[in-house]
Every structure is written in C-alpha cells, then in structure tokens.
Amino acid sequence: MSLTSSLPSSVDVTALVAGLPDGCVIVDPSRMDAYRHDRARDPGAGTPLAVVRATTTEDVQVAVRFAVEHGLSIVPRGAGSGLSGGSSAIDGCLVISMERMRAIEIDPVTRTAVVEPGAFNAEVKAAAAEHGLWYPPDPSSFEFCSIGGNVATNAGGLCCVKYGVTTDYVLGLTVVLADGKAVKLGGARLKDVAGLSLTKLFVGSEGTLGIITRIVLRLIPAQRAPSTLVASFGSLDSAIQAVLDITRRMRPSMLEFMDKASINAVEDLTKMGLDRSAEGMLIIQSDEPEVYAATEIAEIAEMCEANGATEVFSTDDPETGEAFVVARRMAIPAIERKGSLLLEDVGVPLPQLGALCRGMEAISSAHDVTIAVIAHAGDGNTHPLIVFDPMDADEAARAQLAYGEVMDLAIALGGTITGEHGVGRLKKGWLPDYLGPDVLDLNHKIKNALDPSGIFNPGAVLEHDPSRRE
Amino acid sequence: MSLTSSLPSSVDVTALVAGLPDGCVIVDPSRMDAYRHDRARDPGAGTPLAVVRATTTEDVQVAVRFAVEHGLSIVPRGAGSGLSGGSSAIDGCLVISMERMRAIEIDPVTRTAVVEPGAFNAEVKAAAAEHGLWYPPDPSSFEFCSIGGNVATNAGGLCCVKYGVTTDYVLGLTVVLADGKAVKLGGARLKDVAGLSLTKLFVGSEGTLGIITRIVLRLIPAQRAPSTLVASFGSLDSAIQAVLDITRRMRPSMLEFMDKASINAVEDLTKMGLDRSAEGMLIIQSDEPEVYAATEIAEIAEMCEANGATEVFSTDDPETGEAFVVARRMAIPAIERKGSLLLEDVGVPLPQLGALCRGMEAISSAHDVTIAVIAHAGDGNTHPLIVFDPMDADEAARAQLAYGEVMDLAIALGGTITGEHGVGRLKKGWLPDYLGPDVLDLNHKIKNALDPSGIFNPGAVLEHDPSRRE
C-alpha cells in the first residue's frame, strides 16, 4: 500500500527543469528511490514525480509555484534522518530536498548563526565552536541530521534537560509559503514582539505550513568540559527515584537512562564492560565550573548511593565521560541489530516516569515483545524501542499493538506521544486522542489558513481536513 | 476622540451578572474608570459596557459567550501596566480583568509553576524562590505587572541578555477561544512536539487570539548573587563600543545602558552620586560562580577602560550592586517627572546600536524635543523616552513626529518597533512598515482563523481586516 493521492499521475516537468539551475531536478526512478523514505522506513511511502534539490530560496519558490500550478503535493526533506515518517514521499508529489543548501554564517557580536536548512547539526556546532560559541540542541543523530529537520520537528537531544530544545534557539526564519511567496520572520534580535509569534509557529510544523529556507539561530558561549557520572541500579524503581531526587535539587547538563535490554545491546556491540546485570543505568553530566562540577557530581553520587546504586563511577576526564555518552547514543543502532524497530518518543511529567516505565513492562509482557527503553530521563522523555522480527507476521502485529498502547499509556499519564521526533505519518493516528477535538480543530484552522489547498506535506501530522475547501 | 465601535450601545447585562459569582461584574462608571487605560494612558481609550473580574476559567468562558451572543468586543486586562495601549478599553466593550485570578503552585520536581494570569511577576519569583527556584524574566515593572500580561506581550527585562524572554519559559497555557471553549495547550513537559506550536503562538499575541487563564512556566535553579560593575563614559560611541566588545567575548547576566539625560533625571531623584557629566553609563552584572564572576568583571573593567571609561566601579556586594539596578529601573519614573512621555521600545541587531543612538540624537535635534535613552544594551533593545509638555501643543506635536521617526529609523536599521512592550494600539500604525505586506497578511490569516468575528481586543496590534467576514 502506498500513500495515494488523487493528483494527476503524469505532469510534464520540462518547465520545472528549465526554471531551475542545472542538476536540480531528478526524475530518474532509481535515483529518486533514496528520497522516498526517511529513517522510519515508512512502508506506505510513495514515489515522487520529481525531486528538486534546491540551491536557493528562489529555487524553492519556483518549485512551489510549479506545484501550485499543477496541483502537486510537496514533501519537504532535510537529511532524511526523521524517525516518524514526516518525509515519506507521496505518489506523484514533488520532493523538495534541502541537501544542497548548507551555508553557515556565524556573527560573534550578535552571537547568532544564519544557516541554510540542509546544513547538518554537527556542522553548525563546529562553525559556532570556531568562534568560541555553542549551538546546544543535540539529537543523537546530530552528525547526520539537518538543522532544517531539527527546526521542522523542534528537535531535542541530551542537553535539553539544562539547555532547552530547538525552538529556544530559533530567532528567525525565511519561509516559502503556499502561494510561493518568501517571507522573513524574526531576525538576529533576542527581543521582538511586533506582530504574532510566527517564527515559533513554524518551528515544529513538520513541513505542513511552508518550507523553511533560512534559519537565524541564537548561540551561547562554549560549554565547559563536563564531568561525568555513571550509576548502575539493581531495580528500575531505584534508578527512577534517583532521577527524581536529582531533578528536584539540581540541574545537571545531561541525565540519561538506559534499561537492561539497552545496556546489553550496547555491551554486545562495544564490549566496554557495562554491567549486564543492571536493571537501569544513569549517565549524568555536570558542566558547572571545576569545583562546582565536582561538588555537583559528588552530591549526585550520594543520591544514587542513597537509592541503592550497585555501582557508581565518576570522572572529570571529558574523553572518558564521552565514551559513555557515545554508548548511550549507540543504543538505537545497537538495538536495531536485534530486529526491526518501532521507535517511540513518549514523554510524561517527571513524577509519572516510574508509572510509564512500569506500564511499558506490562505492555511488553502482554504482547510478548521486547521493549528496550532509553530515556532523556531528566525531562521525562523516553524512547521505548519495540523490537520485532519482520519475517514473523504475528510478532510484527503484536509489536504494532504495543506501539499504539505505549502512546495510549503516555496520554493517560498526562504525557505526550512525541517529545522531539515529531508526529510525521506514523503517530498521526494518535494525535486526535492526545490533543482532543478542540485543540485538533485549532491545528486544522491554522493549517487551513496558511495552506488552504493542502499542498505542504499532506498526510503528515494532520489528516486531510474535509472542510478545507468549503 | 474615543475608540468607537458600531456595536450596540446598550446591552442588558443582567444575564451576565446572574451567570457569574457575586461581585464579578462592575457597571458603575466611576469604578470602571480605572479599567479604561493601561500605563500608556491612551487618549483614545473608550468606556466599557461592563468590567468582568473573573475568578476562574469558567467565568471567562461565561463572559466570552455573553460577548459573542451580544456582539460585544472583549478587551482582556492584567495589571494594567502595559506601555502600548494594548488594554485601552473600547466603547461598549467587555473588559475581562484577571486581577482576581492569582493562584501560584510550584512543583519543584518538574521545576514548573502553574500560575493564574493575574499573579504579579514578583509573586511568581517569590513563590519559586521558596523552593530554591527562579523565574528569570524581569521587566522593570516586575513588582506591579501581571504574569498574564507578561505572556501576552512576551515581556523581557534586564536578565534577557543571558536568560532569554518570557516565551522561553512558557511550557503550557489554558486559553479561552472565540467560541467560548477552553483549551489546554502544552504542559509541564520540556519536550512536546505533538501538533503545531500553539502555546508559543499565543505568547505575544496581546489578547488578540484568546484569553489566557492559566500558565505553566519553566523554572530554573536560583540565580547566584551577582557581582556588579558600573562604568561611566565621556562619549556615547565609546560606551557602545564597550558593549560590543563585551558581547563578542562573554555573556554577562545584565548589560544596561543609561544616557546623560537618564543619569541626570535619576540623580535628581536619588542624589546617589552618579556622574552627571557622563554621556553614558553601563551597569553590568555577572552571576557566574565566585572566582569566575571576579574574572569576568575584571575583564569587563579592562574592556571599559580600553574604551576610555572615565570611571569604573565594581562590587561583589549584592546590595551595593542592586542600588545601581534600582537606579536603572527608576529611570522611567524619574524622567516622567520632567513631563509627559512617549515611551519607545525599539530594538536593532547589536552592530546597529550606535547608528540607532546617533540617529535618535539627530531626531531629537530636528524636532527640538528631549529624547532620554535607557537600553537593555546587551540585546540591542532600547527605550528612548520622548519628553514633552502636554500643555504645549506644538511640542506635543513635535514629540509625536519624533516618536514615529524613531520607529522608522529602527526599521531602516533592520530592527523592530517593539522588543518587549508589544504593539498595542500606539505602535499599530508602524507595524505594516515593519512587517511588510506579506507577513502582515500572514498575521491577519492567523487572526481571522482563530477569531473570525474579531471579538478579541479589536484594534490592538492589527487594524480590522475588512476581508474578515467575507
């Protein structure tokens, strides 16, 4: 089954090719294949009419106007590292890829970066670092995800527990709208309240309101080298109680959790000596200045021990500490080796973290599927990874049931179905339950106001609103 | 001249009174007078039909439904400390005042506050401090402005140069919409990307999209006691060059500027010994841990001296430092004693700060009016205060011309007409020039989608859109 559309199946792209620089437009099916999916490998992904690899805002405008003229849908695309099917192609659509728009300019005086959306998160960090500055948001995929995709999903990461999420760093955007006009929103100013907060509205809109072609980011001074603490626990409850004790009293710069299945998957891969018997492991960092970091880490160690940690290790050597952070980042690829994955991104208010984890254990038992859990524990954002054998249809079906029940559980606990990956196409079915009818209706009203024909990423986040063309 | 409306001049409020708790509805003209203006004293303010002092979200819903039924406009109102006429009453409107909705609950585990909109900013800070937590945004009016008004205008303050603005701390909102429904947006979760970023859209919307009745705020650990440096300069240019040198290299927790007129007005009032001959004074704080603050302040002192500061004073005694911050906060009331004020809030990218200040000097000369300047210099946000004698019609007219030209200048320099006070009714005339037609159109599209009949704060921020009822 592919995402179908009632759009014309064949449109002559000659005018599109002629209107864009050489090499921008791909129509060769074998070359287009790489543009059909993101990392979620949505089985419903379709086949585009053409892929436009834009080089400028103007290129994007040309492509949008062509799409409008011919009634085509548009699927915008960054680096294709999305985990929710937000970039799944639609049959007969135009994919607009940002991979060639990668310029980065740093202004150290205003401490801002002006970035094209195709630049990788890691490239922005590196450019900022040349000026002693830092762009904090750090999704685990930071080495291969684009900053445009980060903005489109309001991406998070490991540092958010202290430093916030992508939207906290977005000061301005250039956006191509549904009529092909390009607008500049906000700019290199920390303060600007003239008119509605449109910049922030486009952050997290997953390509459904317009196409972001330029981003003004706030930077902050370089992070200090962190100290790291790793603690193993004999029970899930004690690990989670340690998390709550820590967040109540201090604000570490990282507070990550791995469960037994994740620890073992990573240990299988790395042989770095993680405690395979532990039910939970916390990886915690402090980036306070030297003496203060030492104090903070010592207090955290005490709290872990008071909660019965079986092993506590700490280091102020950044490289040793980074090895554990790498281990944490490696969890998804390590678990991917065990089978196909359904990757969740549910978040709850911190006091519900224990209930969420225990509920997921129950779901795992009930459906007899492995659910490995890694979490940005300090902000209640978990990534349950449901593992299944794709050749085992029954297990795959049970995994799918579990996938839905985990989101239902998060909603019941006052949480969200997605903290940082986006709704995309894979979680769309749960959005109405999460938002409720009134907030869902508000979402449709905004979508319809800005994209009345529904050309931008149709089927992502929101179902088509049948009232749209009334 | 008062803001007129084509609405029925007399509506029977019996049903409204009956539908709300005792004492909620005020119709006595002498008591309503206090609800006609905010601090901008908009001469065009009208007279409301009634004032509703809501006690709950449900009260607000009753009032909104009554307004819808009778075709009344609604002007929401916090503490009335607004500086742009955003809360000017309209003839025959319902004013919905939040002054009685002041509950504050702090959750130290999630480090959030759930706050009703009428609570003062200072009350939220105090409640957070009881748990060792901090709500950073600090408009100069923090002791008498409401948190709801802060959210409505995305208020800033002195700490923003390091800690950001109100929107950076808003995680969730309850909002009463134009059909009387109440919706909950976001919540006590740092990460949530399920659906469009509606929470952030309502921040800074100045009461034009709905009425905020409950706010979930992010808190951070208590600020360390700051060290303070005060530097006087013999020329404006050298003071501004010092600002740019500092922001390029570090991130102080405060970086304020006062010009000669402001210094002298404050000195008239306080006799605290400020240098009356200085052309500019910087008040700078560092809240880094002890040794680091001392280093930062020493480096800042060097940069001020290198730029020819005539006097540099520093102290690590918080009380001594606070006296200078109080002096800075006192600038507006001190200058108010010199005459009536037109209070600006223009901001520019930092490298344009000098051009903005020099341009304002030229405007002051051209129109022969005093323009005193205070500024959140570290983020390029200035508050030129145009002083005039209200009994001198010619001077008042020249002041009004200067008021507009300062905003024109900011726009020409790539800046904004308002950094933290809001557009309200007084700056509305300059918004189209600032936004340009396409972004203005986007603003209208959102407004019309959420408030199709235009009942919420009509005439604030945006002109009525004649296409709205098409």
- Computed structural class of chain A: alpha+beta
Strand content of chain A: 15-25%
The number of helical elements of chain A comes to 15
Mean pLDDT over the full residue set of chain A: 95
Please compute the radius of gyration of chain A using only Cα atoms: 22 Å
Number of strands of chain A: 18
CATH topology of the largest domain in chain A: Vanillyl-alcohol Oxidase, Chain A, domain 3
Largest sheet of chain A: 7 strands, antiparallel
C-alpha termini separation of chain A: 29 Å
| Unreliable spans of chain A | 1-8
* CATH-defined superfamily of the largest domain in chain A: FAD-linked oxidase, cap domain/gating helix
Oligomer: homodimer
User: Briefly, what CATH class of the largest domain in chain A?
Assistant: Alpha Beta
Major sheet of chain A: order of its strands?
A: 15-12-14-13-17-18-16
Keywords summarizing the entry:
homodimer; 470 residues; alpha+beta; Uridine Diphospho-n-acetylenolpyruvylglucosamine Reductase, domain 2; Uridine Diphospho-n-acetylenolpyruvylglucosamine Reductase, domain 3; Vanillyl-alcohol Oxidase, Chain A, domain 3; 3 domains; seven-stranded antiparallel sheet; 15 helices; 35% helix; disordered N terminus
Q: In brief, what are we looking at here?
A:
The structure is a homodimer of 470-residue chains. Chain A has 470 residues and is α+β, with helices and mostly antiparallel strands.
